[in-house]
């Protein structure tokens, strides 16, 4: 999906106007727009690049628990006809996943080293031939790398000790739940590429200051998360999803951004 949208005015940053009678009135709309453009052009300080405690929108709902549910049950909600939270084959899926992780060499040999390189690790195949590398690079490396920093910033801004360690634990909890919900087979190579290569690579990549600045300036990456709901009496989980969004300024304009 590609769309174009305008920026929200930074109402909190604009200064009110005091009238002759002493009453405080809202600033003019042009002032709000100029303030929004000024703030959007400034580089974000480290520690506030991907989480800024906005009191509205999906960011106001973001926290470690929502991250676990949204990423963990993303595939169950979007791709499964059975969205019941209870009654899923969690045990069998967990055993299969652990079996794959304990037998990496055997699983890769079964799948084929050449197919692993072409489909999972290197951009050498298209959608009809495999092409899993596209999701690995965009979702697991870039998207989840960014969310790992967002979580670290959330923990730090809420006063938790060791925010980096807590971020890594939360991310891997969400990753493991996501792989279990996907119901891996006994010889599934995809979770190996996700958990052992691209997830840790994304976390390491986004610890580089230049990478954080690259995706928090004019080019901005963020995440749109759902608001998970458990419906009763069916026990189905609804509206749990994760969408990664990257936006860039539209040339020759001052207040429009394109996003994908």
Enumerate the strands of the largest sheet in spatial order, edge to edge or round the barrel. Answer: 1-8-7-4
Major beta-sheet overview: 4 strands, antiparallel
Strand content: 5-15%
Quaternary: single chain
Poorly predicted spans: 1-14, 17-21
Mean pLDDT level: 84
In total, the number of strands is: 8
Supply Rg: 21 Å
Global shape:
globular
Structural class comes to alpha+beta
The succession of helices and strands, N to C, reads EEEHHHHHHHHHHEEEEE
Helix content: 40-55%
Figure out the total of helices: 10
Span of the ends, CA to CA: 6 Å
Provide an overview of this structure.
It is a single chain. With 260 residues, the protein is an alpha+beta fold. It contains 10 helices and 8 strands. The chain has helices at residues 29-41, 64-72, 74-79, 90-102, 104-111, 113-121, 133-157, 163-181, 190-205, 209-214, and strands at 3-6, 17-18, 24-25, 220-225, 229-231, 236-238, 242-249, 256-259. Strands 1-8-7-4 form a 4-stranded antiparallel beta sheet. A hairpin with a 4-residue loop joins strand 5 (229-231) and strand 6. Helix 2 runs parallel beside helix 8 (163-181), helix 7 (133-157) runs antiparallel to helix 8 and helix 8 (163-181) runs antiparallel to helix 9 (190-205). The chain is globular and about 50 Å long. It starts with a strand and ends with a strand.
Features:
260 residues; alpha+beta; four-stranded antiparallel sheet; two-stranded antiparallel sheet; 8 strands; disordered N terminus
């Amino acid at each position: 999906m590609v769309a174009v949208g305008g920026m929200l005015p930074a109402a909190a940053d604009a200064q009110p106007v005091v009238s002759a009678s002493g009453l405080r009135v809202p600033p003019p709309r042009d002032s709000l727009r100029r303030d929004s453009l000024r703030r959007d052009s400034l580089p974000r300080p480290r520690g506030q690049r991907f989480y800024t405690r906005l009191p509205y929108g999906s960011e106001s709902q973001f926290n470690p628990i929502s991250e676990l549910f949204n990423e963990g049950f993303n595939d169950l909600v979007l791709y499964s006809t059975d969205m019941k939270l209870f009654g899923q084959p969690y045990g069998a899926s967990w055993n299969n996943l652990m079996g794959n992780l304990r037998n990496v060499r055997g699983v890769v040999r079964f799948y084929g080293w050449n197919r692993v390189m072409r489909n999972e690790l290197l951009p050498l195949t298209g959608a009809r031939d495999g092409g899993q590398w596209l999701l690995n690079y965009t979702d697991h490396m870039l998207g989840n790398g960014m969310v790992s920093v967002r979580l670290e910033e959330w923990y730090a801004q809420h006063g938790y000790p060791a925010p980096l360690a807590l971020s890594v634990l939360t991310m891997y909890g969400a990753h493991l739940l996501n792989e279990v919900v996907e119901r891996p087979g006994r010889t599934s190579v995809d979770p190996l590429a996700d958990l052992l290569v691209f997830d840790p690579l994304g976390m390491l990549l986004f610890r580089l200051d230049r990478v954080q600045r690259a995706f928090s300036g004019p080019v901005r990456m963020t995440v749109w998360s759902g608001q998970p709901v458990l419906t009763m009496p069916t026990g189905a989980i609804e509206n749990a999803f994760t969408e990664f969004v990257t936006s860039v300024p539209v040339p020759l304009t001052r207040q429009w951004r394109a996003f994908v």
